[in-house]
Amino acid sequence: MTRHPVVDARASDITLNLPARPENVRVVRHVLGALADALALPEAVAADVRLAVTEACTNVVRHAYADGGGTIDVVARPRGDALEVVVADSGRGLGPSPDTAGPGFGLPLIAALADTLEIEHDASDGSRLVMSFRAAATIGVA
Q: How many independent structural domains does the chain possess?
C-alpha cells in the first residue's frame, strides 16, 4: 500500500500523529481549542472547530481500523481568514462499518459546521477530510 502524505508538514502550523484510540480524540480537541484561542477565533467558530474535529477523529477511532490499530493524522494551519484542518487515516476508508445499523450523522454534522469540506477516500488508502472554518476577521496570532 502506498501512503500519500496528508500534507507537506513544512507548511503546517500544527501536525499531530496519534494512535487511533478514544483518549487521543480528547488530546486533538484540546490542541485545536488552544490553537483557536491563540488565533483569537470567535468563540462560536472555535466551538465549531472543536466539535467538527472531534467528530472526524471519533470516526477514525470507530470506523477506520478493523483491528483497532492505526493512527489519526491531524494538520491545522491558518489560511488567510480561515483555519484549515485536515483529519486523515490510513485505514479502510469511508463506508459502512460493521458496528452500525445505518448511515450516521457525523459527516452531515461536519459539513454543517465547516465552511468548506472536502472528502477523499479510498478503501485501500484511508480517508482524508479537509475542513475550513472562516473567522469574522483575518486570523493572526494575538
A: 1
